[in-house]
Request: fold
Amino acid sequence: MKFPHRRVIANDPLYQPQDRDMQFRLTYEGQLFATQKDPVSGQPDARADHKHEIRKQFHNQLRHVWETSPALSVRENYPDQRAQKAQWTGAREPWVQYIANQYARLGYRFAPLVVEELWLSCRLDILFLRADPPGSLIQSGDIDNRLKTLFDALRIPNNLNELGKYTKPEEGEDPFFCLLRDDKLITHVSVETDVLHKPVIGGVIDAHDARLVITVTIRPAIVYMNNMDFL
Reply:
């Protein structure tokens, strides 16, 4: 049996990455637990703490993306995109502050990068190193459940239950950067799996250990004036 294995989980045939698309990489190293099932309304999410701890790792990386990307660091918002007069006479504000104010909820100001307002979509190509014996990388249904945990951690929470014990932002988390407004904005997912040969914690490889390298490609689903910076 050959390694690694690659599987396309979701694919939009019209989404073909181009050199001009915005692209960067996110990484995660730590334990990645499976999401067994979605909690019913009002029921606490047993993985809420775990998901937000992963979300925190991505927050720091995405903050650096916002600070260093020319498409984001200097982007401004007009007070009223629909009023031509306001575009020339109204005060502008940094785009990150506009987004953070738009998605202020649950005691946080979230700043998702991929949002419906700009008609953006997202492609994820994931290298997933995990502790598993040869022959069970693709067949294991555990992969999909662990990826569900990852996707939840890439988007902003929908309710207070999804924050677990992290009910207030900590220092350096205003705004709190996330990749996605909603995971429905992911149009393509491919996963390449291989065996993890080095533990992420301590000296022994645990069954839940994972190293992820996520290549993120963002492009406008519909190109218009306000999202051309992402080309």
